[in-house]
Structures are given as structure tokens and as C-alpha cells.
Design brief:
The complex is a heterodimer. Chain A is α+β, with helices and mostly antiparallel strands. Chain A has five domains: 4-386 and 419-457, Amino acid/polyamine transporter I, CATH 1.20.1740; 463-580, no CATH class; 584-674; 697-768, Signal transduction histidine kinase, dimerisation/phosphotransfer (DHp) domain (Helix Hairpins, Orthogonal Bundle); 775-937, 2-Layer Sandwich (Heat Shock Protein 90). Chain A is built from 39 helices and twelve strands. In chain B, 46% of the residues lie in helices and 20% in strands. In chain B, strands 2-1-3-4-5 form a five-stranded parallel beta sheet, sandwiched between helices. Classes of the chains: A alpha+beta, B alpha/beta.
């Protein structure tokens, strides 16, 4: 007895292990040590192709129809890998260049990033995959039921359709969905790549391979003594023997080629296969190894299919023959199901039931885990791929269009994206469950799977045609896809629904409204048996036929838009055109960097946006501080980043909303956002912003120029005093007999010039402090008269030397202010020495004065002190009055001639006054002297 | 006869050592603090060599040099720029105006003296 508790415990333990591997894989990826970046892991991850269909279904198919029943499903991919790798390589290259996230994205992107195509492909994919999903649910729930009743191998004759929560399958479905949600949408970031997932899938592929090989080895060498023995015994059973008599007729051939064709397409068109082969591909070169590794894997997983089928048949036929009830109904051609008294045994589950019948408890449990592993792997990857498509290509475009949701104003949409993806995973699995519950109960695993293969094969004309034929148009692709899909629904889904009792079976035999020509199983009166068609071949023939016909026909008679043409060239000529470079983009568009950044942050979140932009900046030497306008390269980089999160069709629309582009962009934005007015205003604002940025750039350039000028001025100013110091010092040194008077005079000059040097240096340092905001103010209450007196005292020598007539007009009122005394003295000294410097050389006159004033603003009275320093020099022109205070400016006094010092004295002065809450300005007329005024708030 | 040197500079504290050096080396010296005054002295006093600063109030040194070189009668006068503007572009501009030399400030007194001697013995 195998307790259910143990089974569940082991199952969850295994899932936990997968989860741990995924977690580890992500951690490694974050640390930059990707484990999936090697061709072996890549090849193993492709083996997600082998689902429960392979694990259980192949044995069933082999039991029903021998080699032809299962092998072409694996020959197809093998052929595709070995012969079709140039196609795969091209698809991978195109997807890398364009940051394609899914098969829907791929097709839509090729046809002018059309949202309609993306939506159509998504709907086809979701509906097409539903039967396939149900296969997995069926396999897990059936195998779970089987192993729970260990060692009893019989299933109830009829599938018990317990409603809702009592149904094992429902639980299985919901658990699968939960696992898929946990696996695929763990991160807040909605990246296109899932390193951890790939690692887990590669591991899962190893587990299912080992499981099936263990079963095979046990049967071949444990129950029988090798292949020879097993085959010899099998050949004695007529039902087995006739499986290997190949009937060479039209039916075997068409059936064989049909399955081969479908499998060749499925290997890269199934959403999960596209995800693994293309989207998760780290390095195009990995394909080279996968081309033989993956077929090798397929060979390995199929090697024991026949032995297991034989073992199962031998064992259960023997049982059946010993039971009269069973023996009677055992048909000459084994249909896959043995009907015992206690229940039935389905050949699909021979791998499990045979082990159980042989009381191999541990191995049976391992087999169950292997099968579950195969099924969950499929469900997880498929739902992740599909949910990405549903979110990007179905839900987001609609949500973005619904203006009342105001999504375009939300700052962070990455959470919303995640929620949409999670909900779609749940819904997709639920659909799979419903299909299982109501339709597929009685079908074998392989026959249900084929329906899905036929659905995704509809992508083939649009994909293959799209990458080799530039003339393929959006309309052609859309018409082909839609009609192919409709024929698929009509010829495969309707009959399955009819057989499940949802529709009248009359529909199948007599056609709708009695029109026989339209019968879903004999379209246009084609006698399927005569043509060698079975139901699948019939459906695939017609659906692919109309698909290709309309794809080519409509393409020839429709015109491509500009975007389509561009995309067609990008896709078809991917190897000649695009070395993966953002710069070689076809875009001729610019946008404000900040707008792009905000847009990206909304969908990708802040940290991912920062990372990505930084990477771009490194690669293309983009300077965020200087380059405020994103060029075409950055715009297309941003679009591709966004495409990774929301698909290329939506990304195009979002990027265009912040980009100023050639007129063609406008039309589509309006179409989607439907708010013409707003867009026009927006683009005007953008234009204005661009102009502002240009102006800012100009100011920076001007600033740079002034800084250079400043440096050359400062060095010039330093050289002048240095010159006299050095010359005089040399004279003193070379003339030891210099007379005392001269000696004294020269040394005096040296000292004075040294002081001038120190002053200059202090000014430069002060200026530096102002620039960096490092000044510490020593605020005290002080009488400004003292400040003036002190300043005059320290400049008295200067004034006397030039014989300047100084008038002092300090009113008798007190002028108490709060301030830093030393700094205020510096202000006065600066103004006085300026005045001295520019005084009339013949008769210099300087006036210094202060008085109080009152200003009324509203009912508030502000009292302040006003100080002025007036000279009678050459004056400052109106034009220069504005710039004398600016940093680095040398106010050129007069039309030409020497500059007014280093141009920093007045800047420092202004800063000090500003910091005291005052104001400074100059009033002057050329040749009539200048008066500097400043105010300080009175205490 | 003593050679005549005109010193043109607006910084008295630079004129003082220059004047001392020239007199010590037995030259006749006159000084000017502006370009205008320098041109007057050139016409009236006819110096053999001019030590010419560039940054002057009003007319600058370049202009003074240009004016001298325009007059044929002055083409015997040697012109040496003596300037704190040390960028190669400034020097090139000065030499381009057909000055005889360009010495940057601060200078070594010996060098200035030897340069002047060299220029004045040539003739």
C-alpha cells in the first residue's frame, strides 16, 4: 500500500526541489554567473517538448499503432533541428535584434508591429493550446489516481466526472496553475527571460528521461532477459505482431507525413517551444550543439517506448486472456484499452501500471514523479509563454485604449502587468481543465495533442513566409491566420465537441443545414478515406491550404505600410542589415531623456530601468548629464526594452507617445489613445521642452567658456605682482652695494605686491567657498558705521596714494544689522578698492554714505539700511551693469582696455549681501562715474 | 651715444625695477603708462627699443605695436613685448605683429637685459 500522504509529500518535495533550482538559477544569473548559458542546458530545456504525451502517451500510441503511432512526433523535431536549423537561427537572430518576447510578438512585429495580428495570434495560441493543456491535466490526475490505489491497476470503466472541487483533476489543474504562477511570475520585474525557470526545466528534463529509461531497463532486463527475449515473446502475440506489419497505403503515408509536418512546426511554433528555443536563448551558438543534442535526447527518451509497450501488452493480455469477460471483448486490433471486470487498463499508462502490477512500489512512484515532471514542465512554460502573450497582446492594448482607466497616468504599471499575467495563467489552466472535464475524457493522450499541433501549425505560413518573403503583408498574414484557424475550429474542435455530446453528431455526417459539402469531416465532399486522410490529416490539409492560399493571395494584392516595409526588411535581411546595434536603427526620432526614463520606469520599475539605461550609456558613451535629448539609438533601445515587457505592438505606441518623430507616428498614437487634443498639446509641450533643453545646453557651454576665461584672467592677475617681486628681488640680490634708500623702497614694494598676491589668492579661495556653499557665517549684532569705518581704515593707504578726495556721509542714526562683520568689511573693502581703481586719475573723488529707508508692502513695513559707494571714474555702460556681478565676468570698463580685476570680487560681494538678505546693484553712466548701492535689513 | 629705451607699462611696480635695470646697463630710459602716451614719446623721443606691455588701459600693446610698424620711419625701432599673457596664442599674435621678441612675465632680469643687449648690438 502506497499511502496518498507519501505520494503527495514526494510530489511536493519534487516541486520544492524544482523551485529551489529555479531560485538558485535566478541568484546565479543576478550574480552574473548564468548557469543556463551553455549549450547542454539549452538543449535540455528544449526537451520541455516531451510532455506527459511523450512520457505516457507514446507507449499508448505504440500499443495502438506501432512505430508510426509515435515516432514521427520526434522525427519531426529531429528533422527540423538537423535540416531546418537555418530557419531557427534566423528566427533567433531576428528575435534577439528586435527583443521579441513571444511567438505572437514575433509575427506581429514582422507585420508592422500590428496589434491586431498580435491579438489574433494570441487567441489562436490560447485556444489551440487548451486541448494540449488538458492532456497534461488528464495525465497527472489519472496517474495520481492510479498510484494512489497501488497496487490496484484498474481504472473505473467510466471516467467519474465529479463536479468541481471533489475532482482530483481540478486540484491537479489548480496546483499546476499555482506552480506556474509561482515559477513564472516570481519577480516584480516582468523580464522576458527566466534563467531560473530554464534551469529547472533542464533539470526536469533529466528527471523524466531517467525515469522512463529506468522503467524501460526494468522491463527489458528485470522482467525479461533483454531486448531479444522481450521481442521474441511479443512476436508470438498476434495483436502485437500485426502492429509491425506496415500497411503501405495512402493512409499510412499521408498520416505519417501529416504528423511529421505538424511536429516539425510544433517544435518552434508552440508558444513554450518558441519561448525556450528563441526567447530564452542566451547565445545563438548554443543552437549549433542543440542541433544534435536535442535529437539525441529525443532518441533516448523513445528508446524504451516499444519495450514498455510490449511489456505492458504481454502482461495485461495474459491477464485478460485468463479472465473470460475480458477475453471476449479483446479485439483483434488492440485499441489501447483493456476492459477487465474490475475496471479498465489504458495502454497510455502501461509504464505506471506494469510497475504497479509487478509490485515495484519505489520505481512506480519514481515513474509517477517523472510523468508529473513532464506534465508540469509543459504547463509551467506554456502558461508563462501564453500569459505573456495574453497580457502584452490582448489585455494591455485594450486597457491602454480605455482612457477612463487613466493607465497612461499611472506611474508604475509593472505590478499591474504581473497581476494580469497571473490571472491569465489561472484562466488558461482552468480552460484546460474544462476542456478535459467536458470533452477529452475518452480520447487518448496523443489524439488530443494533435489538435493543438494543428492549431499552432497555422502560424507556419506567416512565420516562414514572413522571414523569407518581403512581400508578405499584414493583411495576407491576418487573413491566412484567421481562415486557417476557423477551418481548424470547424474541422477539429467542432467534431470533438460533437463527439462529446455538445453538438449533434448529424453535423458531422450530413453537414450544417444538411449541406453535405460543408461537413466538418468531409469538406467539399473530399472522401477522406479515398484520399488516405484521417480526421487530422483532413483538418490539417484544409486549414493549411486555405491559410497559405490567402496568405499569398492577399499579400500579392495588398500594399504594405511604411512600418511594415521597414519590419519586413529587418526580418528578411536580418543577417545583412543588423549587426545588433541600436545606432543602426531606422528610426529618425528624438525624445527627452527624462520622458523616456519615466515611461520605462512605469513598465519596468525603477531599478531595472536604471540598470538598462546605464548599460546603454556605457556602451554608447551617452552622458546623462549632458545629453538631454535621446537620439534615435536610445529611442529604439527604449522601445526594445519596453517590447520585452509589453510586446512590440504596445511598446511602439507607448514610445511614440513621448517621441517626436516623422509624421507617420502621429496617426497611430491618435488611434490608440483617442485623445487628439491632448496629444497635440503634449507634442507642443515636448517641443517647448526640447527648446528649453537646447537653451540649457547653450548656457552650459557659455559657462564653460567663462570658466576658461576666468582661469586665464586669474593667472594673468597673479603674474603681475609676481613680476615685480621677482625682478626686484633679483636686483637686490645682484646689487649688494645698493644704496639704503633704494633698498628700502624695493623691499617695501616686494612686501606690498606680496600682500596683493595674498589678497588675490584669498579672493579665489573665497570664491571657491561660495561656489561650494562652504562659508560659515559668524552672525552678530553690529553697527554698520563701524564696518564702514574699519573698511576705510584698511583702505586708507590706497586712497592716500592716489590722492583721492573721500567724503563720508554717515547719518547720525544707528544702523544696526545682524551680520558677519568680517564679511561685511570685505564687501566694503571690495567696493572701495574698486572705486579707487576706477577713479578719475587726475582728480579722484569717492563718496561713501548710508541711511535708512522704509518700504511698505501691504500693511507690512520693512526698514532697511542703504549704503552706497560712489566714484567719479569712467563708469559702467548699461549693458555691462547687468553682468558685472556674474561669475567669471570681467566687467570691461569702457569700450576696451583692462578688465576690472579678476571678476570675482563683485561676485563674492553680491553673494555676501544676498546671504544677509540684502540686495546690491549699480547705477552708472559712461564717463560719469559709478555708484554701487546695497541694502541690508535693519534689526 | 647712449641707446634709448622706452618702457610702456601701467603697473608702477613693474616700471620701477625695469627702469633701474636699464639705467644700470647704461641706457637712456623714458616710461609711459598708456599706449597713447607711448606713441607720443616714440614720435618725439625716438627710442631704439620699446619694452611693451600688452594689457594697457585704453589702447593696448598690440595696437601700439601695429601703429609703430605701419610707419616706415620707425622700422628701426626694436619692439619687445613684455606681458603676463603667456598663452601661445597671445605670443603668436604678438610675434605676428612684427615684434622682435616676446618675453612673458614674470621674467628673469638677466634674460631681459641680455636680450636687449643682443637686439641693440645687432644694429
Amino acid at each position: 500500500m502506497l499511502e496518498q500522504k507519501i505520494i503527495i509529500f514526494v510530489s511536493f518535495g519534487y516541486m520544492g526541489l524544482l523551485f529551489a533550482i529555479a531560485f538558485w538559477g535566478d541568484k546565479r544569473a543576478e550574480a552574473g554567473k548564468s548557469i543556463i548559458s551553455n549549450p547542454y542546458i539549452y538543449a535540455l530545456s528544449l526537451a520541455v517538448y516531451c510532455t506527459a504525451w511523450t512520457f505516457y502517451g507514446s507507449v499508448g500510441a505504440a500499443s495502438r499503432s506501432g512505430i508510426t503511432g509515435f515516432l514521427n512526433i520526434y522525427l519531426g523535431p529531429t528533422l527540423m533541428m538537423i535540416l531546418g536549423w537555418p530557419v531557427l537561427r534566423k528566427i533567433i537572430r531576428i528575435s534577439k535584434v528586435n527583443r521579441i518576447t513571444s511567438i505572437a510578438d514575433f509575427i506581429a512585429s514582422r507585420y508592422g508591429k500590428s496589434a491586431t495580428i498580435a491579438g489574433a495570434v494570441t487567441i489562436i495560441a490560447v485556444l489551440g493550446i487548451v486541448p494540449y493543456m488538458s492532456v497534461q491535466i488528464k495525465a497527472i490526475s489519472t496517474s495520481f489516481q492510479l498510484i494512489s490505489q497501488y497496487p490496484d491497476v484498474y481504472m473505473a470503466k467510466t471516467v467519474t466526472s465529479l463536479p468541481g472541487i471533489k475532482d482530483t483533476a481540478f486540484f491537479v489543474a489548480m496546483l499546476l496553475a499555482l506552480f506556474a504562477v509561482v515559477f513564472g511570475t516570481r519577480h516584480l520585474e516582468t523580464t522576458e527571460r527566466h534563467e531560473g525557470l530554464v534551469a529547472a526545466i533542464a533539470f526536469e528534463s533529466v528527471v523524466k528521461l531517467i525515469a522512463i529509461i529506468s522503467v524501460g531497463l526494468f522491463i527489458t532486463y528485470g522482467l525479461y532477459s533483454g531486448f531479444g527475449d522481450l521481442f521474441a515473446q511479443a512476436s508470438r502475440v498476434p495483436q502485437i505482431k500485426q502492429l509491425f506489419v506496415m500497411e503501405v497505403n495512402a493512409s499510412t503515408f499521408t498520416g505519417w507525413y501529416n504528423a511529421l509536418f505538424l511536429a516539425m512546426m510544433a517544435i518552434f511554433l508552440l508558444p513554450r517551444q518558441f519561448q525556450m528555443i528563441v526567447v530564452e536563448n542566451v547565445d545563438e551558438n548554443h543552437l549549433k550543439k542543440a542541433v544534435w543534442l536535442f535529437p539525441l535526447y529525443l532518441l533516448a527518451i523513445n528508446i524504451f517506448v516499444i519495450p514498455i509497450a510490449f511489456g505492458g501488452m504481454l502482461h495485461f493480455f495474459e491477464q485478460c486472456l485468463s479472465e473470460p469477460g475480458c477475453r471476449e471483448v479483446l479485439p483483434e486490433t488492440f485499441g489501447g484499452i483493456l476492459k477487465f471486470e474490475k475496471g479498465q487498463v489504458d495502454a497510455d499508462y502501461f509504464a505506471l501500471t506494469l510497475l504497479m502490477a509487478k509490485k515495484q512500489q519505489g520505481l512506480a512512484l519514481f515513474t509517477f514523479i517523472g510523468g508529473m515532471s513532464a506534465a508540469t514542465g509543459m504547463v509551467i512554460v506554456e502558461t508563462i509563454a501564453l500569459s505573456t502573450m495574453v497580457c502584452n497582446d490582448l489585455v494591455m492594448p485594450v486597457l491602454l485604449r480605455l482612457s477612463f482607466l487613466k493607465l497612461d497616468q499611472k506611474s508604475d504599471l509593472s505590478r499591474l502587468l504581473l497581476i494580469i499575467r497571473r490571472v491569465s495563467i489561472l484562466l488558461i489552466v482552468l480552460l484546460g481543465y474544462l476542456y478535459f472535464h467536458y470533452v477529452v475524457g475518452y480520447y487518448s493522450l496523443v489524439s488530443i495533442g494533435m489538435i493543438s499541433f494543428a492549431a499552432v501549425a497555422q502560424f507556419c505560413p506567416a512565420v516562414i513566409g514572413g522571414i523569407f518573403w518581403k512581400g508578405a503583408t499584414r493583411s495576407g498574414a491576418l487573413w491566412g491566420l484567421l481562415t486557417g484557424f476557423l477551418v481548424w475550429v470547424y474541422t477539429l474542435v467542432l467534431p470533438s465537441l460533437a463527439q462529446a455530446g455538445f453538438l449533434s453528431l448529424d453535423l458531422l455526417t450530413h453537414g450544417p443545414f444538411g449541406i453535405k459539402l460543408l461537413s466538418p469531416v468531409h469538406l467539399f465532399g473530399v472522401d477522406i478515406h479515398h484520399m488516405g486522410f484521417n480526421q487530422y490529416t483532413h483538418a490539417v490539409f484544409w486549414s493549411i491550404f486555405v491559410n497559405i492560399a490567402l496568405f499569398i493571395g492577399v499579400s500579392l494584392f495588398s500594399k504594405q505600410s511604411a512600418t511594415e516595409q521597414k519590419q519586413a526588411t529587418l526580418f528578411v535581411d536580418v543577417f545583412t542589415h543588423s549587426v545588433e546595434s541600436e545606432k543602426s536603427s531606422f528610426w529618425r526620432a528624438t525624445a527627452a531623456v527624462e520622458d523616456l526614463r519615466m515611461l520605462l520606469e512605469r513598465f519596468l520599475g525603477k531599478s531595472r530601468t536604471d540598470d538598462a539605461l546605464e548599460r546603454y550609456a556605457r556602451e554608447y558613451n551617452f552622458n546623462w548629464d549632458k545629453d538631454l535629448i535621446a537620439d534615435a539609438g536610445l529611442v529604439s533601445y527604449a522601445e526594445k526594452l519596453l517590447a520585452g515587457a509589453i510586446g512590440s505592438a504596445s511598446a511602439l505606441v507607448m514610445v511614440r507617445s513621448v517621441v517626436e518623430e516623422e509624421p507617420l507616428g502621429m496617426e497611430e498614437i491618435m488611434h490608440i489613445l483617442d485623445e487628439t487634443q491632448q496629444i497635440i498639446i503634449y507634442s507642443q509641450e515636448l517641443e517647448k521642452a526640447t527648446k528649453d533643453l537646447e537653451a540649457a545646453n547653450e548656457r552650459l557651454k557659455e559657462f564653460d567658456r567663462l570658466k576658461n576665461e576666468f582661469i586665464s584672467t586669474v593667472t594673468h592677475e597673479l603674474r603681475t605682482p609676481l613680476t615685480s617681486v621677482r625682478a626686484l628681488a633679483e636686483i637686490i640680490q645682484n646689487n649688494p652695494d645698493l644704496d639704503v634708500q633704494k633698498h628700502h623702497r624695493f623691499v617695501g614694494i616686494i612686501i606690498k605686491e606680496s600682500e596683493r598676491l595674498s589678497r588675490l589668492i584669498n579672493n579665489v579661495l573665497d570664491f571657491q567657498k561660495i561656489e561650494s556653499g562652504q562659508i560659515q557665517w559668524q552672525m552678530t549684532r553690529l553697527d554698520f558705521r563701524e564696518v564702514i569705518e574699519d573698511s576705510i581704515f584698511s583702505t586708507s593707504q590706497l586712497i592716500e596714494e592716489k590722492n583721492i578726495d573721500l567724503t563720508l556721509d554717515i547719518s547720525n542714526q544707528d544702523g544696526f544689522v545682524s551680520g558677519d562683520k568680517d564679511r561685511l568689511i570685505q564687501v566694503m573693502v571690495n567696493l572701495i578698492s574698486n572705486a579707487v581703481k576706477f577713479c578719475d586719475p587726475g582728480y579722484g573723488k569717492i563718496q561713501i554714505g548710508m541711511y535708512t529707508e522704509t518700504i511698505k508692502t501691504g500693511d507690512k513695513e520693512n526698514r532697511y539700511l542703504k549704503v552706497f559707494v560712489k566714484d567719479n571714474g569712467i563708469g559702467i555702460s548699461k549693458k555691462d551693469q547687468d553682468i558685472v556681478f556674474q561669475k567669471f565676468r570681467q566687467a570691461i570698463a569702457g569700450s576696451k582696455g583692462r578688465p576690472a580685476g579678476t571678476g570675482i570680487g563683485l561676485t563674492i560681494t553680491q553673494h555676501i549681501i544676498d546671504s544677509h538678505g540684502g540686495r546690491i546693484w549699480v547705477e552708472s553712466e559712461l564717463e560719469k562715474g559709478a555708484t554701487f548701492f546695497f541694502t541690508l535689513p535693519l534689526l | 651715444m647712449k641707446k634709448k629705451i622706452l618702457i610702456v607699462d601701467d603697473e608702477p611696480n613693474i616700471i620701477i625695477p625695469l627702469e633701474f635695470l636699464m639705467k644700470q646697463n647704461n641706457y637712456d630710459v623714458q616710461t609711459a603708462e598708456t599706449g597713447e602716451k607711448a606713441l607720443e614719446l616714440i614720435s618725439s623721443w625716438k627710442p631704439d627699443l620699446i619694452l611693451l606691455d600688452i594689457m594697457l588701459p585704453g589702447m593696448d600693446g598690440y595696437e601700439v605695436c601695429q601703429k609703430i610698424r605701419q610707419e616706415k620711419k620707425f622700422n628701426q625701432i626694436k619692439i619687445v613685448f613684455l606681458s603676463a599673457m603667456a598663452r601661445s596664442i597671445d605670443i603668436a599674435k604678438g610675434m605676428g605683429l612684427a615684434a622682435d621678441d616676446y618675453i612673458t612675465k614674470p621674467f628673469a632680469t638677466d634674460y631681459v637685459v641680455s636680450k636687449i643687449k643682443e637686439l641693440l648690438t645687432d644694429t
